[in-house]
Amino acid sequence: MLIKFIQRFSSKEVVVRGTRYILSKNVFHPKYFYTSEFMAENMEIKEGSIVLDMGTGSGIIAIEASRKASIVVAVDVNPEAIEIARKNAEINGRNNIIFIKSNLFSSIPPMKFDAILFNPPYLEGKPKSYFDYAIYDYKKSIIKNFLRKAKNYLKDDGHIEIVYSSISSPLHMVKYAERIGWKVKKMAEKEIRKEKIYLFKLFWH
Known about the structure:
Layout: H1 2-8, E1 13-16, E2 19-22, H2 35-42, E3 50-54, H3 60-65, E4 71-76, H4 79-91, E5 97-101, E6 113-118, H5 141-149, E7 154-165, H6 170-179, E8 182-192, E9 195-204
Parallel strand pairs: 3-4, 3-6, 4-5, 6-7
Antiparallel strand pairs: 1-2, 7-9, 8-9
């Protein structure tokens, strides 16, 4: 598959917003999918907030969020992603990030967040490896599961921020979210070649 081929021969380091990150062929590569950098540029993090970064990958969103947040909890189902993200936090002197291996919310302790950030997989397909979980969401089961459970981890005035691509029908995600009780607001959008990337902000009614 083309994505895996590109991933295998990609560089082992990348610079995003002036910060250097080490990478792994088994962890989502931020430079080839645009969404991580787009989210880092447009997300809204309040000073002193408590933030959850769902699916942290190389740790870019967690590290960017940690510049304003008091605590960031960064989770990923891929154990190699957790190790790479932890190393990137150490390299960049970020000591307010807690890393947890977790399949969505399964291993997260009972706590409430001001913001939950999610750069979800959005290609249709069945994941067969840890890396696949970063790109495939079979029948939208991951995003639907996330949206059903996220409200239990938000403070009363908390919110979710989700980045999504036109490749995977963001309208479908928005309609599902609204149907189960979320209020959805578009924060930003960007067109890259023939793809549009959106950042959505969700509040629980």
